[in-house]
Amino acid sequence: MVRVIRIPNAARWKQDIQLDGRLYTLTGWYNTRMETWFADLGLSDGEVILKGLRLVLNWPLFYGSNYDPRLPPGNLYVVSPSGQQVSDPGRTDFVDGNVALVYVGNED
C-alpha cells in the first residue's frame, strides 16, 4: 500500500495520520536557515517516537529506527512524482507538487 500524505501550505503544521491501522501524529516545520523540512512522528497520545527527521529526497525516513515496535511496519519517503526534482524539498515543493511525502507499507 502506498499512501500520499498531504502537506499543508504552512511553514509549521501538525496532523494525525493513519498508518497501517494505527493513528500517529506527524508534526512538520521548515527551517529557513537550513532551507529544509523536518518532522517528528509521535503516537496519538502525544508521545514522540522519532524527533527531528530531516525530509530528504528518496531516503527511508525511519532508516535505523526499525528497532522501535511503536513504528508502523512500513516507511515514509519524500519522492518526486515527475522524477524531475533532484534536490531536497524547498519551502513550497510539497504544495507545488514537485515532491510528495508517501508512506509505503511493508507489503509493497
From TrEMBL:
It comes from the Bacteria. Residues 7-104 form the Cyanophage baseplate Pam3 plug gp18 domain. InterPro entries: Pam3_gp18. This is Cyanophage baseplate Pam3 plug gp18 domain-containing protein.
